[in-house]
Amino acid sequence: MSIVIHDVRWSAGGLMIVDGISIDVPAGKTLGLLGPNGSGKSSLLKLICRLRNVKSGVISLGSTDIAGMARLDIARRVALVEQQATTEAQVTVLDVVRLGRTPHRGPLTPWSAADDKAVTAALHHAGLQERAGQLWHTLSGGERQRVHIARALAQTPSELLLDEPTNHLDIQHQLEILSLVAKLPVTSIIALHDLNLAAMFCDRLAILHHGKVVAAGTPEEVLTEDMIAKVFGVRAYIERSAHHGRQHVQYRLD
Question: Which numeric CATH code is attached to 3-252?
Fold first, then answer.
């Protein structure tokens, strides 16, 4: 396993946000985290990269408990793409992607050929080679998300965490971003709201509700009419897509 989460708990303000979650993510696979707002998705991602510390339980990268890892070592291995960020600085795409090399460089470490190679590869994976010199503020929302992913890839991570990467994007850019992530040679965990996009692009799903995992498995195992009604409070009809063979959720208004 690449990421192992065992009986993890985390609370804030006296409220249990992550409540005994256990999830295993095989190396090279993509896990989709689903659940209503406030179910613990974003908090769990921050716990995995140790931006927050678990109250109890264990999170391991491979066989190593992250509690015993230096933060710099975690940053060299795990990259987090948070919800869209903005900046007023006059920076280019290349400037932003180069920031991904920060965990690998000391304050006096000169820029190296290895850094150039990592940044070039990240731009290539994100399809941004032709936009390296373009200013950040001239990019569309979808392009900015690609830059965030490229910055994360420049860290050369083995695990990639994404918090609502398709939020506020049009459907074309949603499909482009998730297709990009699904093809990357890394282990990925993606927090999503859209059940159909999760079924299309994720190998496995975990549904969180009130900080607990209430279902985990393949999209076919997890996305059931009963589960959707229980967790999301809506009625749905499940069918198999003729195009990609995955589950497809049709919402019912009656």
Answer: 3.40.50.300
